[in-house]
Amino acid sequence: MGDAIAEKAKAEAKPRKRRRLKVAHPERCIGCLGCMFACSRIHTGQASLQDSAIKVVTQGGIEGDFRVVVCRGCENPPCVRACAAGALERKPDGSVVFHKDLCKACGKCEEACLVGAISLGKEGKPIKCMHCGACVDFCPHGVLQLEEVPA
Amino acid sequence: MLRKVLYIDLTKRESWVEERQGLFDQWMGGTGVGIKLLSEECPTGADPLSPEAPIILSIGPLNGVFPVATKAVATFKSPLTGELGESYAGGRLHLAMRFAGHEAIVIRGKAELPSYISINDAEVKIKDATSIWGIEAQTTGMILREREPGVGRRSIIRIGPAGEAQVRYAGVVVDTYRHFGRLGLGATFGSKNLKALAISGTETAEIPDARRYREVYNRLYSTAVQTDVMEKYHDIGTSVNISVLNWLKGLPTKNFQLSSFIDAEKISGEMFADNYLFRRLSCAGCPIGCVHIAALKSAFSPHHEFEVRKVSYDYEPIYSLGSNLGVNTAEGVLRLIDVCERMGLDVMSAGVVLSWATEAYERDLITPQETLGLPLQWNNVDGYIKALENIVKAPNEFYAALAKGVDYASARFGGQEFAMALGGNEVSGYHTGPASIVGQLVGVRHSHLDNAGYSIDQKAAKKQLDPEKMVDEIIKEDNSRGVFNSLVGCLFARGVYTEENIIDALGAVGITKTKEDLQTLGESIFEEKYKFKTREGFDLTRVRVPRRLFETVSTLGKVTPETVEEMLRLYRKKRGWS
C-alpha cells in the first residue's frame, strides 16, 4: 500500500508531458504521400487519402511547394470550443480526444480549424489526429517529428 | 477491388460503367487488361488517328495500395509505328484512377470541338476546351488546376501543340513532370480533339485483411528504402548512367557515329546534380523521390532580371538531346528538354529525329532549302529549338516529314542506314551490344524497357553470355515484365517486387496467385500483344536494322549482322514461331 502511494507521488512529481506531431522540415517533402497512406492504413486498415488525418497539399500543382497539414495540438483548441455536442474533449494533459458516439456531424470543428487539420470523413464526422506518430516512420525525408511538450 | 471499366464516347458525349470482373480475373489489370480492351475495341486496320481507334488507360490491383506501384499504362494503336502503342506514366494518375473508382478507362470516338474530360468520382463530364487549344502543356495544367476539384489527390494529363498538330511522337504530359512519352499517345489525343483529362476521387480501396496488408506493406516499404535495390535512384538518379555508359562505350553520340562523348563529363548526372538540381519529387506512393528537377536560371536583361525554368531530367533525355546531338552543356540540354515539355513532344524520338536530320544535312541529303535556312549542326542548341518548333508548325514538306518520325523522313530523304529506329520507334540511349538491338526489335513496344536488353549486354560484358543465353534472358524479361506491368509497378522498383513479394501483395488484396499462374499470365499477355501486332501488320522477319548499329563499336565490341540474325532466329524458334 505504502509503495502505491509512493509511486503515485513520484508520478505526480514528474513533469507531465504529451506527445505532439510536428512538421519539422516541410521544405524537405517530396510529395510521396507516404504519411497519408500510413495514417489510413494504420488506423482504418484501408488504403485511402480521405481517411488520413495528415494531409500533404499541393499549391500550384507538383511545381509548387507542398504544404504539410497536421493538427498543432493547440493549447486552447478552437475545435473543442466549436463542438457543442462535447464530442471533442480536451484532456488535462492537453490532448484532444474524439468521442464518435457524441458527434452530431455538424462540421463546426472543421470550420473552426484555420490550418485545415480537421477534415470530415464519410459520415460527416471529423478525422482527428491522435498524435500517435504512425506517419513519422513512413516519411523518408524526416519532414515529420514526434515531440514531447509539457502537458 | 473495383473491377470496373469506364467507357467514354467523345462522339456521342456519353459515358457509362461496366462491371468486368471476368476481364480483371483473367488479365489482372494494367497492361494485361489494356491489351485485351484494345483488341476488343480497335477494329483491324483502323487508322490510329481516326475516331475508331480507342485510348485505354488502366491501372492494376496494387496501385494506390502498395508502395512503388506508381504507374498507369496507356494502350492504343500507335500513330508512329501503326501497331501496338503502349506507354507508362508515373505521377499521380494511378492514384487518382484508383480513388475515383476506375481501374480502366476506355475513350472512344472524337469530340466535335476541342474538349477535355473531367472525372470526379462517378461524375464524368466532357467539357469545352476551345479556349485552351494551342496552349502549351505546362500552362494548360495551370489553367485546369483552377477549374477542377481534388487539390493534392488529382491528376491532370494534357497535350501541348505537338499533340494537337498530331506529330506522330507527341506525348501526353502527366502532372507536369511525368509523361506518356513514347509512341505518340499525344497525337491520338489530338486526333480526338482531346486536350486533357483531369481525374480525382475520394473512394477508399477496401482491403480484406488489414493485418496482412500492414505486414506486407512494411516489408515492401523497408525493402525500397533500407536496402540497396533502389540505391541508384536515390542520389544522382538515372542520369548517373551518362558517365557509366560513356565509360562502357555504350553512350550514343552524334547519331550513333560514336559510342562515347568527349564532353560527357559536362552533361553527366553528377554535373546536373551538383549545379542544377534544386529539388527531388516522387510519384504518389513512392518514398524514393527519383524525379530530379533542375532550375535553369537565365538572365533576360543586363539588369539582373532572370527567368527560372524548372525542368525535370533523366538519363534518356540527356542522351537523346545531349550526347546524341553533340550538345555539350547542361544548360543546352535543359533548354531543349524544356521546349519538348512545352510543345508536348517525346524527348527521345525528338532527339533521334534531329540527330538524323543533322547528319543528313552534313551529308547534303537535305539542304538549307529544306531546313528553311536553318543550319542543323551538332551542338547548335538555338537551331535545334527552332527546328523543334518547326516540327510542330510543319511549314514545309521537310518538317512535316520530320513530324512523322525518322523512318518516314529517311524513306523520303535518304540516309536510312543512319535513321536510328528499331521497329519504327526511335531508339533509346544504349549502344551496349546485340541484346539491346534484339531486345528493342522483338519487344512488344520496341522500347528498351520491354526486356532491358541493355542490361543483358552489360551483364555479358562481365561474364560471357552466348547468344542463346541472351535470348533466354530477353524472353524471361518479356514475360515477367508483362506481369509487373499489369500491377502497374515502377520498373525502377522491380527489385522490390520479387515473385514472392508479388504473390504476398496480391494475397493481401484478396487475389490468390501461384508462381505458375504468374508465369502463364506473363506468357499470355505477351502472346495477346503479338496477336495485336501481327494483326496490324508487324512482321519480325522483316524488321529493319540501321547499318550504323553494326558500324559503331559498342560496349561488347562491334556487333555483326550475323549475331543479330542468329539471335532473332533463336528468338523465333524459342517462341515457337516458324
Give the topology.
The complex is a heterodimer of chains A (151) and B (578).
Chain A: H1 2-13, E1 17-23, H2 34-44, E2 55-58, E3 66-69, H3 78-82, E4 88-90, E5 96-98, H4 108-112, E6 119-120, E7 126-127, E8 144-150
Antiparallel strand pairs in A: 1-8, 2-3, 4-5, 6-7
Chain B: E1 4-9, E2 14-19, H1 21-27, H2 30-41, E3 55-58, E4 72-77, E5 84-89, H3 93-100, E6 104-108, E7 115-120, E8 123-128, H4 137-147, E9 155-158, H5 161-164, E10 172-174, E11 178-180, H6 185-191, E12 194-200, H7 210-226, H8 231-234, H9 241-247, H10 269-275, E13 277-281, E14 291-301, E15 305-313, H11 315-321, H12 330-343, H13 347-362, H14 368-371, H15 381-393, H16 397-402, H17 406-413, E16 421-422, E17 425-426, H18 434-442, H19 453-462, H20 467-484, H21 499-508, H22 515-535, H23 548-551, H24 561-574
Parallel strand pairs in B: 1-6, 7-12
Antiparallel strand pairs in B: 1-2, 3-4, 3-6, 4-5, 7-8, 9-10, 9-12, 10-11, 13-14, 14-15, 16-17
Helix pairs in contact in B: 1-2, 2-22, 7-21, 11-13, 12-15, 13-17, 18-19, 18-20, 18-24, 20-22, 20-24
For this entry, give a set of tags.
heterodimer, A: 151 residues, alpha+beta, Alpha-Beta Plaits, 2 domains, two-stranded antiparallel ribbon, two-stranded antiparallel sheet, 4 helices, 8 strands, 22% helix, globular, B: 578 residues, Aldehyde Ferredoxin Oxidoreductase,  A, domain 1, Aldehyde Ferredoxin Oxidoreductase Protein, subunit A, domain 2, Aldehyde Ferredoxin Oxidoreductase Protein, subunit A, domain 3, six-stranded mixed β-sheet
* Terminal residue distance of chain B: 41 Å
Using the coordinates above, name the CATH class of the largest domain in chain A: Alpha Beta
What oligomerization state is this entry in? heterodimer
Strand order of the largest sheet of chain B: 2-1-6-3-4-5
Number of DSSP strand runs of chain A: 8
Count of folded domains of chain B:
3
In the CATH scheme, what's the topology name of the largest domain in chain A? Alpha-Beta Plaits
Overall pLDDT of chain A: 91
Largest sheet of chain B: 6 strands, mixed
* Poorly predicted parts of chain A: none
Quote the average pLDDT of chain B.
96
- Rounded Rg of chain A: 17 Å
How many distinct helices of chain B?
A: 24
